[in-house]
C-alpha cells in the first residue's frame, strides 16, 4: 500500500525520470533511511544512479559523528556512492550572525549543491513527509497573515543545477516508522527532536497530534492545500507580472518603481496585493522579514487617503511616495532642497542641477511654441535673464488673469508632486519678474507692442523638447 501511494505521488508530480542521477540527503533517521531504501527498490526500474550525501553539523558531538558513520556504512552495504562532511555551525553563526537552525541549513544546502555539481545530478531527494508539511504550514499560519507566506514545502523546486524533490509528502511519520520496521531497517534517532526548545518540536508534540485525532487525514488535506495554493499563486503572479509591465522600473542606484495610482487601482484587489509584493521583491532582491501585513495595510491606506501628497518609510531606507496620481517606490534619500541661480545671456545656455539645459537666442521671428519653448519680445524684458528655483512669496502674471497668482497655488492647481516643487526651474528677467514657470505656465506682459525682435528660450531634459 505504501509503495503504491508513493509511486502514484511520484508519477503525478513527475518527480523521477529514467536514467537520472539522484543525490539522497540521509541523516540516518527513519525518514531519510526509508527514502534511501525506497529509491534502491525502484533503482533498476528507472535505471537510476544514487549518491548518498550526509552532513555532521557538529552540534551533538560523538553522537552526530556516529550518525554519519552509520549512514556511510548503509551506503557501502547497498553499494551506493557516499559523500559526507563535518561543518562548523558555531563558527558560521559567529561569522554571519545567523541562528543555529538557519546556519545549519545554509551550510547543509551548500554541501548538497557541491555534491550535485560533482556528480552532475538531476535531483536532490529529501525525506520530508506529510506531518512535516502540516507542521510547516501551521507554523506559517501562526507567523503571518500574508497568503504568500502560507504555502508549505514544494513537492519540487529548482536547486543548484537540478531540482529538489520530496517523494514522501504523501505519507505520515507513522507510516515511515512502520515501513522501517517491516523492512528491518534500524534508523538512528536524534534526541533533540523530542525537546521543546524549538518551535517546530512544540507543534510536533502538542498541536499536530490533536489535529490528527480530529482528522486522521489532516496531512493529506494540508498537502492538497499546499498544492492548490501554489497553483493559484502561480496564476495570480503571472497576472501581476502583466501589471508590472505598465510601470516604470529601474534597478540602478538602489532601484525605483513608479506607476499611476488610478491604473493600479483599476486592477482587482488580489492582483494589487500580489503586484505590491512583486515590487518589493524586485527592489529588495528578495522579500525580507521586516515586511509584514502592517506594511501592506499602510500602502493600501496611502492609496485611499485624500491627501494628494504623502510618504511612507519602509525598512532599509525604502520610501513609498504619493504625489497626486503618481506612486513611487525609491531608495533614493530625499535631499534637502538646494537653491540655485543661473544667469543667462543671449546666445548662451546654462545647465541646471538635474542635468537639464536652458538656452537663449535672439531673432527677427520664431515659428511655433511648445511646452518647453517660450518666446517674448526683447524690448519688454530686462536682460540678462535668471534661471532659479522658487522662493517664498513668488508670484507671476498669467495671461487672461487680472493681477498675479502665487507660484505655490499654480503648483497645487496643476497637481505638481510636492517633492518636485522646491527644485522646479523658473525664469525671471533682471528685475525679478517671473516670465516662465518652465513646462507649466507662461507669464503675461512681455509681448505687447512687439518691436519685431524676439527672444526664444528653449528647455531640454533627457532628450525631451
From TrEMBL:
SUPFAM superfamilies: Adenine nucleotide alpha hydrolases-like, MesJ substrate recognition domain-like, PheT/TilS domain. Its EC number is 6.3.4.19. It is an enzyme of class 6 (ligase). CDD domains: TilS_N (cd01992). The keyword 4Fe-4S does not apply. Keywords: ATP-binding, Cytoplasm, Ligase, Nucleotide-binding, tRNA processing. It is found in: Cytoplasm. InterPro entries: Lysidine-tRNA-synth_C, Rossmann-like_a/b/a_fold, TilS/TtcA_N, tRNA_Ile_lys_synt, tRNA_Ile_lys_synt_N. Its main location: cytoplasm. ATP binds at residues 27-32. One of its GO terms (molecular function) is tRNA(Ile)-lysidine synthase activity. It comes from the Bacteria. Residues 385-457 form the Lysidine-tRNA(Ile) synthetase C-terminal domain. It catalyses: cytidine(34) in tRNA(Ile2) + L-lysine + ATP = lysidine(34) in tRNA(Ile2) + AMP + diphosphate + H(+). Belongs to the tRNA(Ile)-lysidine synthase family. The N-terminal region contains the highly conserved SGGXDS motif, predicted to be a P-loop motif involved in ATP binding. Ligates lysine onto the cytidine present at position 34 of the AUA codon-specific tRNA(Ile) that contains the anticodon CAU, in an ATP-dependent manner. Cytidine is converted to lysidine, thus changing the amino acid specificity of the tRNA from methionine to isoleucine. This is tRNA(Ile)-lysidine synthase. The gene is tilS.
Amino acid at each position: 500500500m505504501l509503495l503504491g501511494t508513493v509511486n502514484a505521488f511520484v508519477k503525478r508530480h513527475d518527480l523521477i525520470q529514467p536514467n537520472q542521477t539522484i543525490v539522497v540527503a540521509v541523516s540516518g533517521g527513519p525518514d531519510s533511511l526509508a527514502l534511501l531504501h525506497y529509491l534502491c527498490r525502484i533503482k533498476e526500474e528507472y535505471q537510476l544512479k544514487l549518491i548518498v550525501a550526509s552532513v555532521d553539523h557538529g552540534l551533538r558531538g560523538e553522537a552526530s559523528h556516529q550518525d554519519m558513520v552509520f549512514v556511510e556504512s548503509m551506503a557501502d552495504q547497498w553499494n551506493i556512492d557516499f559523500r559526507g562532511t563535518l561543518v562548523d555551525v558555531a563558527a558560521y553563526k559567529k561569522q554571519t550572525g545567523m541562528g543555529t537552525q538557519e546556519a545549519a541549513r545554509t551550510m547543509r544546502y551548500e554541501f548538497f549543491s557541491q555534491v550535485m555539481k560533482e556528480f552532475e545530478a538531476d535531483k536532490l531527494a529529501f525525506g520530508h513527509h506529510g506531518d512535516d508539511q502540516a507542521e510547516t504550514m501551521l507554523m506559517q499560519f501562526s507567523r503571518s497573515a500574508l497568503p504568500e507566506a502560507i504555502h508549505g514545502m514544494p513537492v519540487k523546486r529548482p536547486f543548484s543545477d537540478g531540482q529538489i524533490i520530496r517523494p514522501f509528502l504523501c505519507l505520515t511519520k507513522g507510516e515511515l516508522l512502520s515501513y522501517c520496521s517491516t523492512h528491518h531497517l534500524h534508523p538512528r534517532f536524534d534526541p533533540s527532536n523530542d525537546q521543546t526548545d524549538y518551535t517546530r518540536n512544540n507543534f510536533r508534540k502538542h498541536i499536530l497530534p490533536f489535529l490528527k485525532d480530529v482528522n486522521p487525514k489532516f496531512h493529506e488535506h494540508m498537502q492538497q492545500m499546499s498544492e492548490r495554493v501554489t497553483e493559484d499563486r502561480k496564476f495570480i503572479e503571472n497576472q501581476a507580472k502583466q501589471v508590472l509591465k505598465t510601470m516604470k522600473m529601474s534597478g540602478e542606484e538602489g532601484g525605483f518603481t513608479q506607476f499611476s495610482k488610478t491604473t493600479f487601482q483599476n486592477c482587482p484587489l488580489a492582483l494589487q496585493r500580489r503586484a505590491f509584493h512583486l515590487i518589493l521583491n524586485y527592489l529588495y532582491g528578495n522579500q525580507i522579514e521586516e515586511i509584514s501585513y502592517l506594511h501592506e495595510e499602510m500602502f493600501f491606506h496611502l492609496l485611499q487617503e485624500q491627501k494628494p501628497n504623502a510618504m511612507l518609510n519602509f525598512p532599509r531606507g525604502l520610501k513609498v511616495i504619493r504625489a497626486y496620481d503618481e506612486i513611487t517606490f525609491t531608495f533614493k534619500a530625499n535631499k534637502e532642497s538646494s537653491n540655485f541661480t543661473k544667469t543667462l545671456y543671449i546666445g548662451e545656455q546654462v545647465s541646471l542641477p538635474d542635468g537639464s539645459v536652458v538656452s537663449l537666442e535672439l531673432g527677427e521671428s520664431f515659428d511655433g511654441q511648445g511646452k518647453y519653448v517660450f518666446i517674448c519680445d526683447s524690448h519688454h524684458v530686462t536682460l540678462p535673464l535668471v534661471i532659479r528655483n522658487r522662493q517664498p512669496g513668488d508670484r507671476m502674471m498669467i495671461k487672461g488673469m487680472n493681477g498675479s497668482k502665487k507660484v505655490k497655488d499654480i503648483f497645487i492647481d496643476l497637481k505638481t508632486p510636492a517633492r518636485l516643487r522646491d527644485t522646479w526651474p523658473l525664469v525671471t528677467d533682471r528685475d525679478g519678474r517671473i516670465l516662465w514657470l518652465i513646462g507649466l505656465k507662461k507669464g503675461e506682459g512681455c509681448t505687447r507692442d512687439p518691436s519685431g525682435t524676439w527672444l526664444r528660450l528653449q528647455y531640454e531634459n533627457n532628450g525631451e523638447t
